[in-house]
Amino acid sequence: MNATTRNTPRRSTRLAGKTVAKFTLPGQVVLVLQGGGALGAYQACVYQALSEAGIEPDWVIGTSIGAVNGALMAGNPLAERVQRLRAFWRAVSHGGWPRFTGNWSRLEAVLQGVPGFFRPNPAAWLYPDNELGEDAAGYYRTDALRNTLDGLIDTRRMSAGEMRLTLGAVNVRSGQLRYFDSRDEPITLDHVLASSALPPAFAPVRIGEELFWDGGIASNTPIEAVFDDRQRHDALIFAVQVWNPQGEAPTTMHQVFARHKDIQYASRAESHVARQKQLHTMRHVIRQLAQYLPSAQRGRRDVAQMLSYGCGTTMRIVKLLSPALAGDDHTKDLDFIPDGIEARWQAGHADALRALLAEPWCRPVDSMQGVVEYDVSLLQPQTAAA
Questions:
Q1: Of 140, 91, 143, residue with least CA distance to 341
Q2: Cβ atoms of residues 288 and 343 within 8 Å
């Protein structure tokens, strides 16, 4: 099923000092956010740039820190979202030991926790077989994160507001990935914390009778939630990635740790999309073939059921990737120092502006293409009036 293109009045707006036409958007706008700890500051400012340009996501899908950022967006009125995102990232930033930054500051996060986010669970550090209980089996406690979010999020709005919110979490006992969706059920802070409960650092979070861990351990790039949605709609998807699947072969063990973590948490995003390209091409083929069937055949129940697998929707994916900063290594997701957070924040804003100025989603698409990707790093701005 095709969604109606979101046509907006062609008013002018200012982007990077240039006047450009108001955006025409090809379907619902979806923001997909990976998990990545401190790297999530990049995601927050991608949203800020979109919002400043008048583009508000209809749907946010996140896991781990992506779930936190998504909840801060969905749980606040439009006018307060950027302010609340800023407030959260200020709350979890810390200055590190005097005269030390970089790895020393990350070591401080390991030893002392992060203000407003997590603190050590002493019982877990004594010895591995210490009995902690199902709800406390983690090296750190996240009471501080709950308190921080409780002061920044309206949970009623998060569940029933104008922005759809989907959070990924893994059932500890079954090992199955589950997406909690505000379209289908109320979303609470427990859901946000469950989606952020990365083991072994954090204990699982109980939702009903079940325990859940961070969805990132099964799929840290939750883009499949868009493709698997029923009913399918045309979509402009901003896929905000903070782990780079591409990289050089390591030559030191320090580099091995960093490269391993990038690959692990990039979470096969490229192969997911490649598979969906194939599936959507087949859906388009089915839709085209249906036109060659006599109407009497199309009306048969069994044939209609088979034809229901076809569709003409187009998913346009704008890929944004957080850049590497000097000193980045396998502990970069613990880089909560203010300078690091601000650098990633500014990078997110710059990359989103680049995408907005290029407007790749306005380019013609082959009618048989169901999924089209645009890499922001390769985009060139369109000509705009000064």
A1: 91
A2: no
